[in-house]
Amino acid sequence: MAGLSTHAIHGHEHRDDVGSHIPPIYLSVVYEYIDYELKEAIFIDRGNYLRYGREENPTTRALERVVAKLEVVEDALAFNSGMAAISTVFIWGLKPGDKIVLPMELYSSTFALLNNIAPKLNIKIEKVWPSAEAIVEAIDRNTSMVFLEVMTNPTNKVIDIDYIYRHIDLDRTMLVVDNTFTTPIILKPAKYGARLVIHSMTKYFGGHNDVVGGVVAGGRKDIVALWDWRRMLGGILQPFEAYMNYRGIKTLEIRFEKHSNNAKAVAEYLANHSKVEEVMYPGLQSDPYHGIAKKLFEKPLFGAVISFKIKGSYQDVISFMKRLKIIKRCPSLGGTESMAVIPTKAGAMFIEPEHRLKLGISENLVRLSIGLENVDDIIEDLSQALNF
Ligand SMILES: Cc1ncc(COP(=O)(O)O)c(C=O)c1O
What we know:
Helix 2 runs parallel beside helix 9, helix 3 crosses helix 8 and helix 5 runs parallel beside helix 6. Helices cover 37% and strands 16% of the residues. The chain has two domains: 246 residues, Type I PLP-dependent aspartate aminotransferase-like (Major domain) (Aspartate Aminotransferase, domain 2), CATH 3.40.640.10; 133 residues, Alpha-Beta Complex (Aspartate Aminotransferase, domain 1), CATH 3.90.1150.10. It is of the alpha/beta class. The protein is built from 14 helices and 14 strands. The site of pyridoxal-5'-phosphate has 15 residues, from helix 3.
């Protein structure tokens, strides 16, 4: 089996008459039937003729082939955002009377979406402490889906997916993993029984903070069923965005390594800073989740998201944020630029207040996404900003 970067670069399987190495951006919305009698179609995929841009697009398809290879599953389906991918999976996979079990710390819009659609569809939501044991314990006979991120946002707890894999009946309860934070570079959830693997490609896959996208990867049968929902709901990733995401993925492995190495150096710096109360980063040997992360992750890389608590008041946090120069005060993560956000004023607002308290999401918590700048410059920026 080829390595990850080889798949990322060559796995698109595009061939054409002019010998292009790179999949072109196919802008056509319609595709003429070669044989008007429909005996032969230009391109047959997912059981359908390539005929209309809301159903399939050859550029998008090239990207999907690459993602399926990276996650080592049969197929993938690209959407115009991570949320379009997640909402389509919920609509496809949940029915009235079902229960879904989730960790209480999860990407906030996933919570917002579920909180809004669950009452309409009579679906029960159970949010538990982000640990494998708590998740397994919450599963009952009505639980049709467990949905989780192995590394939680923003406090970087690591959930032992291997324990879940060994303790649940995967035929009765499907495991869906949002692998955005971990990426297939360090974790392939399908190895642990995940039936579907989701990404916000807006993050590490696209990697440059210049394109939005989402993808679901899994077995052929599920992807064909989801394909039908995608065309009904209209969420296909458009060709230019598909091209940009594919282009990003080609350098995913090398970028993820640099992101992770930069982040580790920053986390070590922060852990020794007198104005820092706590650093949450599983790459630190002292982190309580280091052991689980080391066991699960295929390489000693822990991603680019670091959260830390500033010793001081909320006003001190604001002063720190205002002083940042290179690091931009933006949400999102996984892109070339380093960014900082105050979770209680951003995504974590959707996490219930009592859960925030238990999880350690306090007002003095700052989340960083470490970019690809020279790490000395990132540290220098933090150093001057902490000098408030
Ligand atoms: C873990 C995770 N999943 C899903 C999403 C949603 O993705 P998108 O913004 O592409 O819709 C995000 C966005 O921040 C995320 O961080």
